[in-house]
Amino acid sequence: MSQGYNNSEACRIVGINRRTGKRWRNGDHSPHHGKPKPPIRAEASAAGPSRYLRETDRIHIADRLREKASIRQIASELGRSPSTISREIRRNGALWRGKNWTYRPHAAQRRAEERRPRPKQGKIRQNPELRDFIQHHLSRRWSPEQICQALRARFPNRPEMQVVHETIYQALYVQGRGELRRELARSLRTGRTMRRPHRQSSRRQPRMSKDMVMISERPAEAADRAIPGHWEGDLIIGKAHKSAIGTLVERTSRFVALVYLPDGRRPAQVRDALVQTVSALPAQLRRSLTWDQGAEMALHKEFSTATDMPVFFCDPGSPWQRGSNENTNGLLRQYFPKGSDLARYSRQELDAVAAELNSRPRKTLGWETPAERLAKLLTTAS
Q1: How many Å apart are CA 365 and CA 253, to the nearest integer?
Q2: Residue 88, class by beta-carbon neighbours within 10 Å (0-12 exposed, 13-18 middle, 19+ buried)?
Q3: Co-location of 159 and 239 in the same domain
Q4: Among 147, 178, 231, 337, which residue's CB has the most CB atoms within a 10 Å radius?
Q5: Can you give the pLDDT at residue 121?
Q6: Is the pLDDT of residue 24 over 70?
Q7: CB atoms closer than 10 angstroms to residue 159
Q8: Residue 263 lies inside a defined structural domain of this protein
Q9: Does a structural domain hold residue 347?
Q10: How many domains in the chain?
């Protein structure tokens, strides 16, 4: 009507009864909700794009739905994602005559405004059983995603016991929510209580240029993880670069073996420790080893002679070529923090840490544990 239309024409354009339009203009109280209906006002386009749908957007949706326009057409006209429009109709519309949606823009606006006030009580705070389950598994150093998968598997018919992993991260990261104990953030892989963007790894120069067989010559069966027995290896370094622990990860099952290095990480010491660890493996699990170009592997030829296990080297500054091992080293830092003296850990302690990692479900294995997957592979091979 502010554009010059009379009452009847304005009501026809909006798609409402003339009496309804009169009530809206006059601000009369609704007989259903006891609240005054605000007059229809066109929002200024100068306000710019909004994160939330406005009332004018909802009126446009209602008009186009009556004209049988598709969700994607409406989304394109409003500059929104189709899922935004679909979710808006599903959440703020109403079922009418069976399964047909009827969408009333002003009622939808009211519903959206009533849901918007913050803060809201989180799902974890509302459910003590859910909170205790999450805290127990965080204390066992499970990741939030592993916990969420365990909740779905254990409580498939109880939606109140299921959350997404972002909910757990928010309960730990956001101060003032009080849903999970703050100290449990130290059980996360990084140990941080706030997010930090990833940084690019610095380029490194080759440290060995003699007798190296590069990863490009590694058998195809190792690259596609089809056959067990191909390993990735590295060292995690302790305080002042004076101590280290060797890490070996089987590519197919992600099974972890830790190499005990009590006396240091000189090439001869690394060679002897690797030979001792690898010699304990079944013959079918000794196919190849992939390492970075660290100087500790200078005696790789002697290792290969002793174990009949070839060593392949990654390209400089290419940690993604040993992705499973890099991921495992991140997991191990929960047990062996940076800056700590790694020489103080005994072989029994290393074996206990490896056993705990190998009994932890992994997303990449379809939530099987590495120990279960390796046992299955060995049974199939035999």
Answers
A1: 7
A2: buried
A3: no
A4: 231
A5: 76
A6: yes
A7: 10
A8: yes
A9: yes
A10: 3
